[in-house]
Design a protein that fits this description.
globular, six-stranded mixed β-sheet
């Protein structure tokens, strides 16, 4: 089994393309050595990231991310075991998307802010505060569908 965490966070400062490239280069090198795969989306000052691998390694990475000053308001949207890595071909893929695309992936109409859309969508608040794995899987599948057409690990969702 593979352990997966999907989280969102607000960027503490606006990210430029050079900043994102630096993050991706570091993540790809580090993740390759640790057997971590995943994808990163950055839109409207919000990160959405999916990280997969061995449970202890992924949880240690999440602890480091939580202490990273580039992140504010970190919300774990999904965390749990999955049968196999969804992003096994990418140490850290990057998807450029619009807020409307992220809302669409999450099954929303696109009228909500990205951060609120992610939190509301991946948390099943109708029943309680448990995370909804089906919605999390829907978001991951949507990102993977974009990446499937871009084997280089850099994709524009447009």
């Amino acid at each position: 089994m593979t352990y997966q965490i999907i989280y969102s966070s607000k960027s503490s400062t606006p990210m430029q393309s050079d900043d994102l490239e630096e993050i991706l280069e570091h993540a790809r090198a580090s993740n390759a050595s640790k057997g971590i795969t995943g994808a990163l989306v950055y839109v409207d000052g919000v990160f959405l990231q999916i990280v997969e691998g061995k449970s202890d390694v992924v949880q240690n990475l999440m602890a480091r991310i939580s202490g990273d000053v580039r992140h504010e308001t970190i919300a774990v949207l999904w965390e749990g075991e999955i049968p196999s890595a969804v992003f096994s071909d990418w140490n850290m893929a990057y998807v450029s998307a619009t807020p409307q695309q992220v809302a669409h992936w999450a099954g929303l109409l696109g009228t909500t802010g990205v951060a609120d859309a992610l939190t509301d969508t991946l948390t099943d608040t109708a029943h309680d505060t448990r995370q909804d794995p089906l919605k999390a899987a829907q978001v991951a599948a949507s990102i993977l569908a974009v990446l499937a057409t871009q084997p280089s690990g850099r994709a524009n969702a447009g």
